[in-house]
Amino acid sequence: MIQLQSVPGQPVEQALVVAPVERDRTLEMQPQGQDWLLPLVAPTAILPQEVRIGESLPAPGILRLTGETASTRLRLDLPASVITPSELRLALRSGVDVLTGSGMLQASVNGADPVEIPLPGASDFTTVSLPSTALVAGANTIALSVRQPHRIFCGPEASFDVWTEIDLSSSGAALTANALRPDAEGFAHAVRAQLARSGSLDLLVEPTVDSAVLREASGVMIASLAGVGRLAVSSFYGLQAPQYAAVALVASERSAVSYRRGASGAIVLQVEYQGDALPDLTGALPMLDAVRPPTARIQPGQATPLSDLGVADILGNTHYFRRDIPFSLPDDWLLLANQKARLTLRYGFSRSLADGAILLVKVNERTVRLLPLDRDGGEILPPLAVGFNASLLNPGRNILSFEMMVPGAPPDQACPIRTTDMLVVLADSTLQIPPSPSMTLPGLAAPFSGLTPARVTVPAEVASDVELQAQALRLASGLSEPLVPNPAVSLSVIRLGNLRLVPLDDAGVTQRQVQDLLLAARPAGAGSAEPLTPAPEAEAEASAPAAPAFRLDETREAGAVDGPGILGRFGAWIGSAFTAQGRLWRDANEFRQTAFLGSQLSLPEWMEGRRGDALLWRPDPAQPEALWLILSPQVAVDTVADRLEGLIANRTAIGEAAVLRADGTWDIWTPIRPPMLRERLAGADLRAILGNYASWSPLIFTLALLGLALLSALPALIYILATRERRN
């Protein structure tokens, strides 16, 4: 309340009294009356962000189906307290290369008869209605498939030109504004809708929120999200209000949990806390189903069918087709020598594929077999053994890929209508990986495999920095729970301004070197009004007379001088051979680099000249489970979380530091360290153990064998010398 008139007997300077502002007052306002749209939910956490044949998520909330044929399965949760809708809304748009009049979308709700919808032309998103009587309260499955031929061309490149996008945030079931009640059930549906729209759930806090309370509340929310979406710590006074759901953390004189409807119509879970104690949130937050299913694990030494990896028969019906099959190996599996793994492939292809059609079998992006598909088709072929080096595999997550490319016949005309499948890979194909001794390569991968989201924190010295806390919490919400958690492993997240907290001296790195690594490079001369001063060598070259650019004598070039003699040329060759540009020096340097598995550069030398957006590091050897993540000012936290999740899953961080480059890949610094044996030496594993050490360092292994040979020859030499002396 604001008083504008003075009170008799009260000083004028005390007449203006401002009542305290209720932080949640907007949450008590009535909704604006717009309809709700419970959006369709896609498994966004497992979809690639780059465009691929089939499903992809090129932009938040935009599902793209690419290729002549593609399909997806979406989910829609309907509350039991509302009248079941009789139709769905789909917001669609197709590419300009889709043949008009022939593009078609088929939609089936809960296995009912499919309904065909013509694809819209090349324009902005168009909303179409899908009538359905098969919708039920609870979970609904919507299966969508598209048929979208190219209007001009045919071939692998043309497959990427035909696509249809679905705006998930504008597709779903329409409900009235008050259809969802502000209670636990309504909030659960609102949370799913909010995650489908924005990919994150807001936690509204004050700038002065207690850091311990913030961490505790965020931990409960991250566990509830289960990797389905990210956690966004926001202010009560933000410009953009949540549309469907949010959680408000309010300091109060009591501890209580309640549901309210906000001004935008969103259902808000209001958590009031007293002091540093949160109320019991059990049952207040919905427990979402994790969308990242655990990667199927292969038992080394046994033939594993693809069906055990969660794969049905693979059908490829686009001129460019790719299917990735992830699988995992034990964390202590390691083979660096030439042991062989084997894929027993059962496949078939159409008889009418064009000349030049091929199938590539890949392991971790390395092609291990090229198979022709332009002859002997029309049936399932006999099993084919595809052998490949087991050293291509990593402990942890690996990917087996099938990639098909079929040229158009002809490529400059629309593809003919097909009546047969182009490729099939049967699910009873098997993959067999050889066993290995229990060994690991030292590095960040071992502690990373046990990192839990709850252990992603900020240092205690900057715990009051709410913005940094928000970045760390959003990063933590993008990580999955490990199969075997290790509570001793921690990841401290800081910015460049907090480098004083990092034990840099233990690694021999300066703050300036880290800043040069993570700050964007400035062009030469940028930001400076001073002219560039040429180097003395450049001045000398500029002052030297220019060589004539003409030739008048057939036997002698203008300005030519007598060349050196034989001794001069020999001396020049000897001198240049041992310089940094000489051949002998280069050969010796290459031999030195291949003598070990790892980098001979120190960390400061390795960082020189590199640029990145984030530095992942283990600076203190005395604390191997204390990890640090330093963020650059220009980095997006969601990008770091996605790339960090992939680095953990693939277990490729076998070094001590990793730099996230601008293209989303990691540069890893791997010092020279031998593999570690994690079991007692056994005779059955001796060959594999020696093979790992020999592959890690052929030089040391060769020198060791030579040393053993000399030692074994030493007794014979002593015996010969002794017998010769007795004869004499």
UniProtKB/TrEMBL annotation:
<dbReference type="Pfam" id="PF20916">
    <property type="entry name" value="BscB_a-b"/>
</dbReference>
<dbReference type="GO" id="GO:0005886">
    <property type="term" value="C:plasma membrane"/>
</dbReference>
<keyword id="KW-0973">c-di-GMP</keyword>
<comment type="function">
    <text>Binds the cellulose synthase activator, bis-(3'-5') cyclic diguanylic acid (c-di-GMP).</text>
</comment>
<comment type="pathway">
    <text>Glycan metabolism; bacterial cellulose biosynthesis.</text>
</comment>
<keyword id="KW-1003">Cell membrane</keyword>
<keyword id="KW-0472">Membrane</keyword>
<keyword id="KW-0135">Cellulose biosynthesis</keyword>
<dbReference type="GO" id="GO:0030244">
    <property type="term" value="P:cellulose biosynthetic process"/>
</dbReference>
<comment type="subunit">
    <text>Tightly associated with the cellulose synthase catalytic subunit.</text>
</comment>
<protein>
    <recommendedName>
        <fullName>Cyclic di-GMP-binding protein</fullName>
    </recommendedName>
</protein>
<dbReference type="GO" id="GO:0006011">
    <property type="term" value="P:UDP-alpha-D-glucose metabolic process"/>
</dbReference>
<dbReference type="InterPro" id="IPR048861">
    <property type="entry name" value="BscB-like_C"/>
</dbReference>
<keyword id="KW-0812">Transmembrane</keyword>
<dbReference type="Pfam" id="PF03170">
    <property type="entry name" value="BcsB"/>
</dbReference>
<feature type="transmembrane region" description="Helical">
    <location>
        <begin position="699"/>
        <end position="722"/>
    </location>
</feature>
<keyword id="KW-0997">Cell inner membrane</keyword>
<comment type="similarity">
    <text>Belongs to the AcsB/BcsB family.</text>
</comment>
<dbReference type="InterPro" id="IPR018513">
    <property type="entry name" value="Cell_synthase_bac"/>
</dbReference>
<feature type="domain" description="Cellulose synthase subunit B-like C-terminal">
    <location>
        <begin position="594"/>
        <end position="724"/>
    </location>
</feature>
<keyword id="KW-1133">Transmembrane helix</keyword>
